[in-house]
Amino acid sequence: MTSERINLSVPRWDQSTFTGRLKYFSWITDPRLSITPSSQLMEAKLLLEKYRKGEESSGTTVDKIRRAQQLYLSAFHPDSGELQNVIGRMSFQVPGGMVLIGAMITFYRSNSAVIFWQWANQSFNALVNYTNRNAASEITTKQMAVAYVSATTSALVTALGLKSILAKRATPLIQRFVPFAAVAAANIINIPLMRQSELINGVTVFDKHNNKITESKYAAVKGISQVVFCRIMMVIPSMTMLPILIEKLEKTAWMKRNKFLNPPLQVLLAGVTMLFMVPVGCSLFPQKCSIRTEKLKILDKEKFEDLKIRYGADLPDQLYFNKGL
């Protein structure tokens, strides 16, 4: 048994600072974690359960507990504790995103390629958004279908519409930014629709001692808005800087002789960019989001009035909730 006990309820790094959040998310979004076998993930979960009860085997080291914690946080939902689908995990964002982004910024000239890769990207995003939602809020199959179809349609309309408009009016470089515009537009639609039950019913908010207080629509709006912003920020470097770089590389004699390297090169560069931007995007705002209780008056006025009557002077000033990723 370890001599130094770890408080598993407290994040390893300070989540009130960007640096602390960046260390934390770099730790749990490591792409190598996505290939960890389910059996090893379940073993990590069991070890943590035993550790919390003080029942771990003698000789269990701090490093072993930290490794189990890393595996658990990378694969299990923070609200429900359920094992997440591997494709929807944040640790899979780099391998999944690099292929899709690389393909979208490479094959943007033909309508058929635009349709296929935008559809593939929105299918991937829909699964990621569902996996990383606030699990305390349920969503029906019909709501998921509406979100998926709406986001895919918006991405295709944006991509094909801009492609048609810019084909004769813009330089080839400007046309390379069409995939980014489509992805941004789809994210603005996909995430709120996939998490619409939170906007309709509110998300559960807690006090600092993790006691449930109520449900809040205002908290849902704040959390989802931050997630949309973060997701767009994740792809900005790869979908705006890479087109400029590739535009210049394609004019070199070396690239003209080795055109077959263009697609894999863009996928590789997208992967390198995403390797840094996934933890950065996740770190922009705390995952345990907070709101001032008085903000409930904006969208949750009746609940706020009820809380004042129920708690009186004991009503907490600050409420907390999981915003999702």
What do you see in this structure?
This protein has helices spanning 18-28, 38-53, 62-75, 93-106, 111-131, 141-166, 172-175, 178-194, 196-201, 217-249, 253-257, 262-283, 296-299, 301-311; strands spanning 203-206, 212-216, 288-292, 318-322. It contains 14 helices and four strands. By secondary structure, it is mostly helical.
Radius of gyration: 22 Å
Secondary structure tally: strands: 4
Overall shape: it is: globular
**Mean pLDDT score, rounded?**
86
Percentage of residues in helical conformation: 55-70%
Distinct helical segment count = 14
Distance between the termini: 34 Å
Order of strands side by side in the largest beta sheet?
A: 1-2
The low-confidence runs, each spanning 5 or more residues with pLDDT under 50, are none
- Structural class of the secondary structure composition? mainly alpha
- Strand percentage lies at 5-15%
Q: Sheet bearing the most strands, described? A: 2 strands, antiparallel
Instruction: Give helix and strand order, one letter per element, not per position.
Output: HHHHHHHHHEEHHHEHHE
Keywords:
325 residues; mainly alpha; two-stranded antiparallel ribbon; two-stranded antiparallel sheet; 4 strands; 6% strand
Summarize the structure.
Helices cover 63% and strands 6% of the residues.
How do the helices and strands line up, and which of them pair or pack?
Layout: H1 18-28, H2 38-53, H3 62-75, H4 93-106, H5 111-131, H6 141-166, H7 172-175, H8 178-194, H9 196-201, E1 203-206, E2 212-216, H10 217-249, H11 253-257, H12 262-283, E3 288-292, H13 296-299, H14 301-311, E4 318-322
Antiparallel strand pairs: 1-2, 3-4
